[in-house]
Amino acid sequence: RRAALFLKAGRAALAQEPQEFLGVFPKAPEKAYGLVVGRRITQGGRRAAERKGVLFAKYRNGYDREG
């Protein structure tokens, strides 16, 4: 649901102020993607994300953190 809202907002921003948003959106976005950001993910969580088409981005928070 949030991905769909971001898609709608991105299209509206590009339509209203194209010069401002051309660096972010070179053309109108066509598809929404779910995104999860974290330091780790379980195998079950990764499989569920893949089934639903959700992207997982690994986040590192400093040198002393695992990840």
Would you give an account of this structure?
By secondary structure, the chain is an alpha+beta fold. 43% of the residues lie in helices and 15% in strands. The chain is built from 3 helices and 2 strands, in the order H-H-E-H-E. A two-stranded parallel ribbon has the order 1-2. Strand 1, helix 3 and strand 2 form a beta-alpha-beta unit. The chain is elongated, with a radius of gyration of 16 Å.
For the structure shown, list the relevant keywords:
67 residues; alpha+beta; two-stranded parallel sheet; 43% helix; elongated
Shape annotation: elongated
What is the percent of helical residues?
40-55%
State the secondary-structure class: alpha+beta
Residue windows where pLDDT falls under 50 for at least 5 positions: none
With strands numbered from the N-terminus, the spatial order across the biggest sheet is: 1-2
Q: What is the terminal separation in angstroms? A: 28 Å
**Sequence of secondary-structure elements:** HHEHE
Characterize the biggest β-sheet: 2 strands, parallel
Number of strands: 2
Radius of gyration: 16 Å
Instruction: Please report the number of helical segments.
Output: 3
* β-sheet strand percentage: 5-15%
| Mean pLDDT score | 80
SSE topology sketch:
Blueprint: H1 2-16, H2 18-21, E1 34-38, H3 43-52, E2 54-58
Parallel strand pairs: 1-2
